[in-house]
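Figure 6 in text form: structure in, sequence out.
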């Protein structure tokens, strides 16, 4: 489809359009499904009591995450530009002023920073694919597996090499454009990702403590629920959907006008949530079968699972398949993290996608060395929240993304006119519209503020203060 065929009558995308609704769903699902689902969700669930956390997480996803995703998609399609230009344009149109472009700029910058350290973690995943194929984990004990990871993370040359390989792959895909690059990549990788996940689910059911894993995932233990649990579920729901970093807005700019935003956003949220839950059902039975603590934290996939795969029949094949799954998930997310910055560069400097992709990729790659060195040459250099990687993670996840998500909901719920909203959502004054508007105007902003205050430590400080002080 050409750049102008699917225009909305007011403006058209400068970058092309998704060829179908399915392409958009796969693209945004690929964006949302990443290390947050396969790596982070299982261990966060483990740390917060399992079933009760999962139920609260699901409520947060559909009650808060879905309305924000609809809002961000709507802004992208209505603006038909990169997130910065779209928010500036819509701010002027809706009478809010051009300063709303800061929201888009914050999202682009957040994605830029996230990819700089995300690529380093994804590089480890690529290394683990090769190590698993080579049988490095076969019959290994816990000390051996831990030393393998420490040797990889502490070897800056090896980490830099894998970081470079991952960034090159990402740049090549993004440089090819919407249909030939982004769409072709996600059309191949997202179904492959889901297929691998289902194969691993069967493996886990046959060889792990599947019943124990199911009970852990779905039997709520309300005695373990606290304010911390609710906030952890809310934060995980918010961040796993790639909301607030410009990705969804950038992809929404390529969405044809006739495609239903509520239907596609719902499909994406359902797919993303299913992957997160299935990942838990793959991981926890294997963890329990091998006597591993389900609350092992971030080391769950880099230390605990390699130990498990290395000591079970067929572990080489299924371990390789698992890390290939994580690699696919990381790549689909990396593509979406890079796209907003590339779109902004193309439109701002009137250059080709290929050139913009190379320039942006090189800057992100170079910035990533601060995270590479965070485990080796600069491991002892700590400030504020720890290493450079720790600080990039904290700044983006706990400050930039919540604020971006908050301002998106405020704009859609309070600044954007009902006529403009209905032009995009096309659901009239239905119960669905009223529900979306209520959640967007009142529930989502309050929830995001709570996550933000908790993340920066202000909520704990406020709750600790005596009443009336």
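Output sequence:
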């Amino acid at each position: 489809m050409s750049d102008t065929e699917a225009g909305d009558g007011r403006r058209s995308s400068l970058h092309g359009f998704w060829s179908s609704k399915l392409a958009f769903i796969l693209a945004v699902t690929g964006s949302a499904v990443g290390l947050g689902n396969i790596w982070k969700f299982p261990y966060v669930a483990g740390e917060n009591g399992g079933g009760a956390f999962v139920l609260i997480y699901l409520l947060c996803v559909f009650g808060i995450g879905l309305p924000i995703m609809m809002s961000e998609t709507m802004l992208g399609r209505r603006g038909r530009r990169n997130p910065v230009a779209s928010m500036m344009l819509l701010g002027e149109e809706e009478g809010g002023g051009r300063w709303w472009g800061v929201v888009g700029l914050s999202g682009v910058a957040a994605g830029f920073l996230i990819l700089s350290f995300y690529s380093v973690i994804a590089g480890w995943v690529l290394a683990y694919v090769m190590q698993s194929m080579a049988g490095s984990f076969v019959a290994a004990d816990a000390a051996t597996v831990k030393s393998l990871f420490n040797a990889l993370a502490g070897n800056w040359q090896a980490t830099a090499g894998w970081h470079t390989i991952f960034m090159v792959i990402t740049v090549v895909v993004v440089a090819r454009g919407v249909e030939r690059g982004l769409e072709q990549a996600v059309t191949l990788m997202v179904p492959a990702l889901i297929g691998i996940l289902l194969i691993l689910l069967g493996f886990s059911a046959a060889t792990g403590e599947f019943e124990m894993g199911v009970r852990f995932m779905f039997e709520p233990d309300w005695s373990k629920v606290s304010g911390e649990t609710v906030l952890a579920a809310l934060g995980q729901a918010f961040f796993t959907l790639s909301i607030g970093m410009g990705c969804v807005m950038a992809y929404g700019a390529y969405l044809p006008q006739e495609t239903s935003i509520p239907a596609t956003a719902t499909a994406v949220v359902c797919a993303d949530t299913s992957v997160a839950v299935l990942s838990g059902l793959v991981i926890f039975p294997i963890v329990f079968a091998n006597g591993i603590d389900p609350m092992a934290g971030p080391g769950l996939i880099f230390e605990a699972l390699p130990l498990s795969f290395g000591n079970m029949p067929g572990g080489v094949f299924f371990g390789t398949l698992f890390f290939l799954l994580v690699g696919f998930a990381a790549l689909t997310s990396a593509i979406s993290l890079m796209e907003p910055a590339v779109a902004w560069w193309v439109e701002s400097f009137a250059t080709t996608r290929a050139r913009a992709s190379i320039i942006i990729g090189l800057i992100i790659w170079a910035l990533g060395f601060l995270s590479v060195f965070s485990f080796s040459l600069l491991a002892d250099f700590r400030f504020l929240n720890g290493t450079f990687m720790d600080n990039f993670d904290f700044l983006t996840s706990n400050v930039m993304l919540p604020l971006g998500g908050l301002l998106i909901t405020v704009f859609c719920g309070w600044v954007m006119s009902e006529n403009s909203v209905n032009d995009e959502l096309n659901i009239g004054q239905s119960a669905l519209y009223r529900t979306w508007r209520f959640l967007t105007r009142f529930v989502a902003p309050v929830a995001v503020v709570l996550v933000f205050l908790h993340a920066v430590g202000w909520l704990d400080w406020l709750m600790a203060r005596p009443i009336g002080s």
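Caption detail: The chain has 19 helices and no strands.
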